[in-house]
Design brief:
4 copies of one chain form a homotetramer. The first copy, chain A, has 13 helices and 18 strands. Chain A has about 375 residues and is α/β, with parallel strands linked by helices. The first copy, chain A, has one domain: Aldolase class I (TIM Barrel, Alpha-Beta Barrel), CATH 3.20.20.70. In chain A, strand 14, helix 10 and strand 15 form a beta-alpha-beta unit. The radius of gyration of chain A is 20 Å and the shape is globular. The model of chain A has no long low-confidence stretch (mean pLDDT about 95). Chains in contact: A-B, A-C, B-D, C-D. Strand 11 of chain B pairs parallel with strand 4 of chain D.
Chain lengths: ~375, ~375, ~375, ~375
Amino acid sequence: MVEVVIGGTKSARQGYSFDQVAIAPQRRTRDASEVSTNWNIDAYKFATPLIAAPMDSVVSPQSAVTISRNGVLAVLNLEGLWGRYEDPTIYLREIANVSQDQATSLLQRLYSDKPVDHELIKNRITQLKESGITVSVAVSPQRTAELAPIAASSGAEILVIRGTTVSAEHVAASGEPLNLKSFIHELDIPVIVGGCATAQAALHLMRTGAAGVLVGFGGGSSHTTSEVLGVRVPMATAIADVASARRDYLDESGGRYVHVIADGSMGNSGDIVKAFACGADAAMIGSVLSRGTDSPGGGTHWGSEAWHATLPRGERHQMKQVGTLDQILNGPATTGDGTMNLVGALRKAMATTGYSDLKEFQRIEMIVS
Amino acid sequence: MVEVVIGGTKSARQGYSFDQVAIAPQRRTRDASEVSTNWNIDAYKFATPLIAAPMDSVVSPQSAVTISRNGVLAVLNLEGLWGRYEDPTIYLREIANVSQDQATSLLQRLYSDKPVDHELIKNRITQLKESGITVSVAVSPQRTAELAPIAASSGAEILVIRGTTVSAEHVAASGEPLNLKSFIHELDIPVIVGGCATAQAALHLMRTGAAGVLVGFGGGSSHTTSEVLGVRVPMATAIADVASARRDYLDESGGRYVHVIADGSMGNSGDIVKAFACGADAAMIGSVLSRGTDSPGGGTHWGSEAWHATLPRGERHQMKQVGTLDQILNGPATTGDGTMNLVGALRKAMATTGYSDLKEFQRIEMIVS
Amino acid sequence: MVEVVIGGTKSARQGYSFDQVAIAPQRRTRDASEVSTNWNIDAYKFATPLIAAPMDSVVSPQSAVTISRNGVLAVLNLEGLWGRYEDPTIYLREIANVSQDQATSLLQRLYSDKPVDHELIKNRITQLKESGITVSVAVSPQRTAELAPIAASSGAEILVIRGTTVSAEHVAASGEPLNLKSFIHELDIPVIVGGCATAQAALHLMRTGAAGVLVGFGGGSSHTTSEVLGVRVPMATAIADVASARRDYLDESGGRYVHVIADGSMGNSGDIVKAFACGADAAMIGSVLSRGTDSPGGGTHWGSEAWHATLPRGERHQMKQVGTLDQILNGPATTGDGTMNLVGALRKAMATTGYSDLKEFQRIEMIVS
Amino acid sequence: MVEVVIGGTKSARQGYSFDQVAIAPQRRTRDASEVSTNWNIDAYKFATPLIAAPMDSVVSPQSAVTISRNGVLAVLNLEGLWGRYEDPTIYLREIANVSQDQATSLLQRLYSDKPVDHELIKNRITQLKESGITVSVAVSPQRTAELAPIAASSGAEILVIRGTTVSAEHVAASGEPLNLKSFIHELDIPVIVGGCATAQAALHLMRTGAAGVLVGFGGGSSHTTSEVLGVRVPMATAIADVASARRDYLDESGGRYVHVIADGSMGNSGDIVKAFACGADAAMIGSVLSRGTDSPGGGTHWGSEAWHATLPRGERHQMKQVGTLDQILNGPATTGDGTMNLVGALRKAMATTGYSDLKEFQRIEMIVS
């Protein structure tokens, strides 16, 4: 941790974004077929360490199936359009087609006109379960106490509690705030929780009993937390910091390994590779999956920050569609810019640098430039 | 204070702009409703620590009322169009509509054709007083001796002496220069004075008896001091330096707390947040308020640097209008880029990082990237 | 080697690209005619230390003659179109004219429709030999065992084994991987091998008996390894590192001098100069030679990364044509932007800084900015 | 002098450009009228420390008079169009109007079709002398021995020997190279010589007996030395280094003060201010003077690097015209971007920071960002 002096007695630490770092090949190379990208969390096993973010432009009940077929965990946002509208297809199309100037207002309207519907949520989970995939859903920290029990009892297998910033100690204005630790203890499905961006915040989240913590504030391409709140922690640094917290907690807990999941700011396969190199166990991706011709966003992308009623901190973005979700995840790629064959790129990066599994790959030598 | 060697025996200190710094959430979060942004200076209390800059594109007798209604101190420039013309509406419209090539010449002409009118100034102050708001007006250091007594006797409650650079020791060509210390001592209303950008310059201004000092050279988006004069002090560093001077002066003076007021370069709510994180007690904002549909600039923005007769150091800028001044200050926002709901964003930033008041928030951990 | 901390326990080393470095004139200058750019590798002597990269947009049997006439070694890619099609002229034209969106797919199709043809390869080498030039051909590491013996027995004089990353220890999925050391030992022509980018990887390649190692991952303007794989080593640092490995190996081997050949990222003559200043013995150039009105790419440029069937890591680029290959290499230049008279620029740079040969020039003082 | 490691055993020093540095106001300010910008070199006195660069787009026999009237030394290039053509007006117009693609070729042709004419040179100097200004002319180091005696005997008062890089020890291919030291000793007018960019090179030039040395490689906006030759020394660092050499030489010579003259890269008045802040005694400016409606370039700008027959290292640039040369030098400015009232801006910068003469101003505190 390098401290720099901003001025007077105010110091700050130096952070690095994905753009500023890279990996370097070493003396050994390997066939890509000799590489394993397997990932397990709790009792669940996946062929790839990627997670589709709970964003309406990425995960619908339909795209969840496509994505899961590619070995990738898909998370449906219970507070999104699919938890509010019986058939939101028409609204998705409206969002995709509205002019940039009107987009934020439209989002604000669509997400407030219709409240989250408990029965609908149960149906969605049943629908996902029937499709045979690992069922994972997301809720915001504000509504966790209300919605998580419904999700768990309806058959959700992995719960994601996801907000811009989630802490283990929330001070609420009125009533009792959510006690994450006892809540997670009582819930009988594994919980992934975040975002956070510092070792200290992550350590506290790990102590709540979470199976995984999300690092980052979700959505490098779709959110504007930096412009609106002044909050920014460069991802390479954030991941490396939280990976250190994982090690500290491993010791403190006598062996509980909490997964560090990079969330956001990964705009191409190179960024995903760098996330693992910095110490991530898995990567939650959004914008790269919104580029699918069969993605729900229809060529646009937005996160939950963008539909906040009074202080939106994100925007709907136009995304160039590049191919099917299958192609984006497992190729073949017909572009050369890191937007397709994400899993193939990760395998190739590991092979090129001589690593055979992800845990080893976290130790790769890096370059700052 | 980190010194770097430019070359030979010439060294320089490293400075950081708002773009290069950010704040990082910690282990605790808080409801935004649990946060206080109250600000007091002298006997005056405000719901928010923002000040509308004395610029004709931002503060008119009318917009001052709207702005004040939002808990924000509005400062009218006595040397602006409202101190020269009975009804400058037509000229404001002319400035808003002139082509970019002609804008500087038009400003030079409008601000020199008609001199500042003492009677008009008195009327303006009376007009502001009658509207029931806290009356604050600004003068340049060159005309302080002439105009400030008129302002004070007409009922102005807070005087702002504002120039690109204001020092406690001005060397004048002829006659006696303004002795700030005795001047402020004799004036019976609180004085805010600046800009300055270094601890040493600020300390001397604090010793004059000022209630607050302006940090920065006013107008990140509208002035060109760097291109014209080679003068630039990155704001994050300047604020942190002057905040240190505040502490030194607090000790030296046996307890007088002089407010550090960031002035300029804050183009979105994230920048405002960073100003407080670096140590500011309040923030004087211009360009963000010129984006109002009811702002006097009618979609354009300029500062007093831009109308200098022989050496303008600024330009008239086109600004995208985003909503009413009410919305810009207190929301709801319909944009996600930090241009609306400035107060809400500040509250949310404090809440997200777990702070409940501004004085504590000045201690937040920062990141440089 | 300067280490920086990315976060937690993860550190990285600082790297510099050509853009960040420059050379500085010293107290002595020299006439450009007093400068020697001679370069010898193995028994082959060249008037200039440049090598035309084995890319179909740069080296054809025809352009190889033009390039060689300018004192520059030209390398034909045996796995390119000239090793697959009897007359690829029509396909080169197709590639030059296809829209950007279709370019990657077209490349993928053209390079997979027709396999590499052993007889054709022999004919190409015979053709080159008859034209009287030094015959050099390139193969990928994957097909070296298959194609290199054919090349050698057909009369190739210098073999280039070139991949994005080539290591001395490749771990293959099935069968025995290529043992570079024994392979090179048995081949009776000198071998240049790469790319690599670190001292350690280079040292291992030097130990295989190679006459030269390629530094870099080939093609700054045409490849996207960074976006796709997250792999990037800034060239100035990579060359300086490998130049140190050359010295280490010189000692370890009791005097074998392995040539360090910068490969890629040199977009103008200034970059070429910097490569030598960092320690290169020769420079393999691609994009700058694709600007010739008589270059095979017809105003476009691509590398072998761009035609990969499932994970392309490059694109076809439009290049502004500036003059003939003769003019590009030895002038006269009719542009002032470093795209023409590359050899003249190298001579002038050496003269301006007072050096008379390339080995001395490697010691020149540099500036980082 | 801060050393950084590029890689292996190759280190470099850190340099700073004007863009990266700025000046900071201090605790004292001053009226601009209280400031002196007087400059003396040898027996010549000037109201301002600026020198118009010997470039055909800036200095003609006519514009020299206008420029001199503003207190600025104007230098005519004897090897330019005015030394070749009786009336080059038509060619100047041709250069101003030719398309960008044809510009370099046209320059190459115009400057080689007609040789430098000794009689014409004498007439030009007589013409300048008759206009009553201080007569200064420039020659290249290559032709100094041939042209300088003619200039001196015709009445030139200050000789400028200017090349991209000029050293005190030039190694020539044939014949005896110019011995600067004995040449300057024998010439009975003061000589300014350069460019150079390091303390060591400058020290050797100072020892030749020159009255001033040019720092930089001339023409930030018009030359491309970095792209073509890889040569670049950031100006702030170069000036500060050479200013240190001035001090060393002052001691070594027992008191001879050689003027350090910043040459090039000053695109606005802020850059000029920074040159003095870094230690310059005077500034040779080109591009800013080519913006005059009465400048010879007619809205375009080029340096002698751009007309080199085989390796041009510069281009003809389009420049926005902003006002008359009088306005550009002494105002009033009708732009706010540092392109007009250069002298006023320098005075204001000194006044704002509390300095009254240029020698003191060289000690001002600087900021790097």
